[in-house]
Design brief:
291 residues; Jelly Rolls; 6-stranded mixed sheet; 5-stranded antiparallel sheet; 11 strands
Length: 291
């Protein structure tokens, strides 16, 4: 975890080999666990089945009501302005790394993947969606089914959990019939542009100066803005994306560690191994063997 300002944290996805592809929890219990102000390096679906409280996303306060769904992207700062037990009476939260939904060739970035597009920044209405009253029981049951599958851990539970997650994402997409077009037509804010550059260039030996130059900003200004808004530096987000891709290649291919190092933007395999070990407490080879 890393600090956001003086009192909040960045919550990271547990990338242990063999870990679940998605996590889910009932709320308000999960709200007490994460603290008042935090950000994530993964995607979050927050379903308020019964609610009458407030939540703050990147400085904007939303008043929640029954049937609200919040889709929260990596780096967005979440704050709770009222006590946890006064925010949501009953609901669910599911979270997962972006790369669990494998992008097809036409969608090189998770931000352009049809099932994940509602998480992209740029339009307020993409952050909060509303479930019609007649559909709320079905929404509740989708999360419950995912939770049951993950708890039972029967044979094939990973594949079943991904299937449940996919159905949940389809349901989210169906709530955003006109959002995708609005997002594509609108100008995205600075943070979205930063993440887009990282997504497009993480496989290169790109530097902070390169990213800043592409955005016509100074490295110092870019660092200040991103750290202030997300709790992490541009370099930390870049490293997180590279490690995410490295884990995928270690799990799904027979490429050598040196080849994977080059594919995730590290020409020096020795440095890549040290960086990977610092983040995972094991070398890439050990992580592959443990999986």
């Amino acid at each position: 975890m890393g600090a956001i300002g003086d009192s909040s944290v960045v919550v990271g996805w547990d990338s242990s080999p063999g870990g679940p592809p998605v996590a889910v929890s009932r709320v308000p219990a999960e709200l007490r666990a994460v603290g008042h102000t935090h950000a994530h390096d993964f995607l979050v679906i927050f379903y308020a089945h019964r609610a009458d409280g407030r939540i703050e996303l990147d400085g904007r306060t939303w008043t929640m009501s029954d049937g609200d769904v919040f889709v929260i992207a990596p780096g967005q700062v979440v704050s709770f302005t009222t006590p946890h037990n006064q925010i949501v009476d009953d609901g669910w939260v599911a979270w997962f790394p972006a790369d669990v939904i494998r992008p097809a060739g036409a969608y090189p970035s998770w931000r352009s993947h049809p099932l994940l597009f509602p998480f992209a920044r740029g339009a307020d209405r993409a952050q909060r969606l509303r479930v019609p009253p007649a559909e709320r029981t079905a929404w509740y049951d989708r999360f419950a089914a995912l939770d049951t599958e993950l708890r039972a851990r029967r044979d094939g539970h990973r594949e079943a959990a991904l299937a449940h997650l996919t159905l949940l994402l389809v349901a989210v997409s169906r709530l955003t019939t006109d959002v995708a077009g609005a997002l594509r037509a609108g100008d995205e804010p600075l943070l979205a542009a930063v993440f887009d550059v990282i997504e497009r260039r993480f496989h290169e030996p790109v530097s902070l100066a390169d990213i800043a130059a592409e955005l016509s900003l100074t490295p110092g200004h870019l660092t200040t803005v991103v750290r202030r808004r997300t709790g992490r530096t541009v370099q930390q987000w870049l490293t997180q994306r590279r490690m995410q891709q490295a884990r995928r290649l270690l799990a799904d291919t027979d490429l050598t560690v040196a080849a994977i190092s080059r594919r995730v933007g590290y020409p020096d395999a020795g440095y890549f191994i040290r960086r990977f070990r610092a983040d995972h407490n094991m070398t890439p080879a050990q992580w592959r063997a443990a999986g």
